[in-house]
Amino acid sequence: MDLLFSNDRPGHYPPSWYAATATPPAPFAPLRGDTRADVCIVGGGYTGLSAALHLAEAGLSVILLEAHRVGFGASGRNGGQLGSGQRMYQDDLITLMGEPEADRLWALAEDAKALVRDLIARHGIDCALKPGVATACFTPGETREAHAYADLLEARYGYATERLDEGGMQALCPSPAYRGGLLDRGAGHLHPLRYAFGLARAAVGAGARICEGSQVLSIEEGRPATVITAEGKVTADHVILACNGYLGGLNARVAARVMPINNFIVATEPLGEDAARVLTQDVAVADTKFVVNYFRLSEDGRLLFGGGESYGYRFPADIAATVRKPMVQIFPHLKDVRIDHAWGGTLAITMKRMPYLARLAPNILSASGYSGHGLGTATHAGQLMALAVQGQAEGFDTMARVPAPAFPGGAALRSPLLVLAMTWYGLRDRLGV
């Protein structure tokens, strides 16, 4: 079974609030016949589109192959949060990598946020970018830990966040579940699908060629390499894999380290005046559950709430019911609210929850495994790979030095073992451990 086609109609965006409020580019023709390019990119999400844009701006000939439509996967379905730092907390990165390398990773993460803002401004991408992401804590102990982390960021990097006690969190997010947290106004949130469409239009405007409906079946390594689809092939000096959770069997080394999982989001009916009982400011929120709850208000006053995960190929039959359960735990007063949209998406995680960037062959690069932190990181990874193709690999090499152990048992056993682990962490969440 192929995740590319397990839950979605070929070439159709899922019926999400994002798809209902975005205008896609006109469809791009599939690849037919043989063609030649400096660089062939596999995957039309943030990573691939960013790589295509930056390579085309540098004057290289670029062809991007996408099995469905641009922004079809996680790039067009996620929570829209542009977070600070790397996916792993900075103190943990210092322990893992040492201070100089961890500091370089912090700087790269700041570059990622700046890049997203710059691309939006430079290309006039209408994606409702707003500042502010809050971390919501369930206990006083979690709040103290969050505030200590804020102290580290301010002392080490001069990066300021707002520390929220219980009263401050309640003033921002009047949920009975939360006891404090942080507000990071240097982070942000946006409409993820409109952002992806903006990147696609910019890439094409810079001279990149996009082929939709062009699933890659195999890649023949060599110099040049050959990328093969059902109806054609691309001979390219360089290949970039930008597939994330939809890699399938294209590369065993990546598949052993990057695992697809599914996550789900709902959009309620417009809440009207009741929106202030969810959030009093136009910021996004992610909480401290291991299976994280994340939410924000849409431009038309709906609650966009993400929660719940699955680890097989199929989405649940009733996504709305799956997400309503954690939503009502956070906002009991919404137990009878109408849900107008419910959708799922496939992202990808790694053992360390850090992205996996790798040089798979001298002329084949890959970036994936963003672990729920992909909006800025994936956009940046595309730029870093574009620079590496041009011989400027410092940023790419820094990210590639992050340890990336294979899942136990590799691709064959990663799913059942992860189910056991996530069942345990889900129990911890329910017990408040």
Quick summary:
The protein is an alpha/beta fold.
What does this structure look like?
The structure is a single chain. With 433 residues, this protein is of the alpha/beta class. The chain folds into 2 domains: 3-78 and 193-259 and 351-418, 3-Layer(bba) Sandwich (FAD/NAD(P)-binding domain), CATH 3.50.50; 130-186 and 260-345, D-Amino Acid Oxidase, subunit A, domain 2 (D-Amino Acid Oxidase, Chain A, domain 2, 2-Layer Sandwich). The chain is 35% helix and 25% strand. It has helices at residues 3-6, 17-20, 46-57, 90-97, 99-122, 140-157, 166-172, 192-206, 252-255, 319-330, 374-389, 394-400, 410-431; strands at residues 33-42, 62-65, 81-82, 130-137, 162-164, 180-189, 209-211, 216-220, 225-229, 232-241, 259-268, 284-287, 294-297, 303-310, 339-349, 356-361, 364-368. The strands form 2 sheets. Strands 3, 4, 5, 6, 11, 12, 13, 14 and 15 form a 9-stranded mixed β-sheet that branches. Strand 13 (294-297) and strand 14 form a beta hairpin. Helix 3 runs parallel beside helix 8 (192-206), helix 4 crosses helix 5 (99-122) and helix 5 crosses helix 11 (374-389). The radius of gyration is 21 Å and the shape is globular. The two termini are 36 Å apart.
